[in-house]
Amino acid sequence: ETGVTQTPRHLVMGMTNKKSLKCEQHLGHNAMYWYKQSAKKPLELMFVYSLEERVENNSVPSRFSPECPNSSHLFLHLHTLQPEDSALYLCASSQVGLRANEQFFGPGTRLTVL
Amino acid sequence: SQKIEQNSEALNIQEGKTATLTCNYTNYSPAYLQWYRQDPGRGPVFLLLIRENEKEKRKERLKVTFDTTLKQSLFHITASQPADSATYLCALGENNNDMRFGAGTRLTVKP
To answer: How many other CB atoms sit within 10 Å of the CB of residue A3?
Structure first.
């Protein structure tokens, strides 16, 4: 185990649903990330939180809304998604400043939008 | 535009041989480069880090080189084993908050 957990592992939702993905890190890190991984494409960085403040938002549609209530928890709130949003959503954490951003990933949430 | 290209989508080699994976980049000035391993249904796992002022790093059967002139990193697995079969991702970092990944190379080591 990497010390980063994600729930749920699998999620099927309709385009009108609202759901949330949860990530928790037990490593004492100060930065957390959301990535999207689609088949045969590079990991796409979606959001970065460093010291609980959002420092990057890579032009992600507003139907994805992140929340970082503390340094150990990260959420991704989903609403009115599209079928092309179906992908593996990965959470990661790292200790910024200590080592060149070695990231620890969770197992991911496999999302299917019908 | 910025690109990170990993040489091939898939690589098949025989057990015992050396696997060599390539990562090329354009329009980046990375401060460091990392390699990750990803197994099906799992998140990537960190393997090695190499900084811009380093030429080569080794860890057990793994070796990474970094040529900032060629804008290329090579990742070698010597004495490969079937258990090394996985997808390998390279990632470039220009600062502490941001890292960009390649699409990965799926390595299959046949017994």
So the answer is: 13
Q: Output Rg (C-alpha) for chain B, integer angstroms.
A: 13
Query: What are the CA-CA distances from residue B4 to residues A38, A68, B72 (Å)?
Result: 16, 29, 10
Residues within 8 A of A (CB atoms), B 30-89 only: 31-32, 34, 41-46, 49, 51, 89
pLDDT tens-digit readout, B15-61 = 999 999 999 999 988 889 999 999 998 999 999 999 989 999 999 99
Write out chain A residues lying below 8 Å of B96, CB-based. Answer: 31, 50, 96-97, 100-101
Instruction: Give the integer Cα–Cα distance in Å for A75 and A26.
Output: 15
Give the distance from residue A84's alpha carbon to the nearest chain B alpha carbon, in angstroms: 18
Q: Give CA angle at B16 (B13, B18), nearest 5°.
A: 60
User: To 5 degrees, how large is the angle CA A28–CA A33–CA A36?
Assistant: 145
pLDDT, tens digit (0-9, with 9 covering 90-100), for A39-68 = 878 899 999 998 878 877 778 999 999 999
Residue A106: closest C-alpha in chain B: B43
